[in-house]
Amino acid sequence: PAPAAAMAQALAFMRWRARVDANDVEFVLAPARGLGEGATFAPGGKVFDQGLLGSHVLWVLDFDCCRKL
What residues have CB less than 8 Å from 19, skipping those under 6 apart? Predict the structure, then answer.
């Protein structure tokens, strides 16, 4: 649920604050870089810890098809 909520927040931010359509953006789960529990990568960043996946982060990639609204 936490990564899904983060994806929803990212899409809402792109739509309502950045004013881009988020066409073809990709969300990628990746292993955390061992910065310790609760480490952040950027303002608002978060390391997720969810059972089988262990500690991981969510990246948003591929903005080349995005257009301004």
Answer: 68, 69
pTM of the model: 0.75
> Total domain count for the chain?
1
Secondary structure of residue 11 in the 3-state scheme: helix
pLDDT tier for residue 16 given thresholds of 50, 70 and 90: very high
Residue 69 lies in a domain: no
What is the identity of the amino acid at 9? Q
What order of strands is seen across the sheet that includes strand 55-61? 26-31, 55-61, 48-49
> How far apart are the C-alpha atoms of 55 and 33, rounded to whole Å?
9
